[in-house]
Amino acid sequence: MKAIRRFTVRPVLPDPLRPIGDLARNLRWSWHAETRDLFRSVDPERWAASGGDPVRLLGSVPPARLAELAGDGPFLRRLAAVAGDLHDYTTGDRWYQSQPEQLPAAIAYFSPEFGITAALPQYSGGLGILAGDHLKAASDLGVPLIGVGLLYRHGYFRQTLSRDGWQQEHYPVLDPNELPVVQLEEPDGTPAQVSLALPGGKQLHARIWLAQVGRVPLLMLDSDVEENDLGERGVTDRLYGGGSEHRLLQEMLLGIGGVRAVRTYCRLTGHPAPEVFHTNEGHAGFLGLERIAELCAEGLDFDSALESVRAGTVFTTHTPVPAGIDRFDRELVARHFGPDAELPRIDVDRVLRLGMESYPGGEPNLFNMAVMGLRLAQRANGVSLLHGNVSREMFAGLWPGFDADEVPITSVTNGVHAPTWVAPEVFRLGARQIGAQRAEDALTVGGSDRWDAVADIPDQDIFDLRRVLREQLVEEVRERLRASWRQRGAHTAELGWIDGVLDPDVLTIGFARRVPSYKRLTLMLRDRDRLMGLLLHPERPVQIVVAGKAHPADDGGKRLVQELVRFADDPRVRHRIVFLPDYGMAMAQKLYPGCDIWLNNPLRPLEACGTSGMKAALNGCLNLSVLDGWWDEWFQPDFGWAIPTADGAGTDPDHRDDIEAAALYDLLEQRVTPRFYERGQSGLPDRWIEMVRHTLSLLGPKVLAGRMVREYVERLYAPAALSHRSMGPDAARDLAEWKGRVRAAWPGVTVDHVETSASDTLAELGTTLGLRVRVALGDLGPDDVDVQVVSGRVDEEDRIGDATVVPLKPVGSADQEGCWVYEGPLSLDRTGPFGYTVRILPAHRLMASSAELGLVAGPSEELVAAAGLLMR
Question: In Gene Ontology terms, what is one molecular function of this protein (predicted)?
Answer without folding.
Answer: glycogen phosphorylase activity
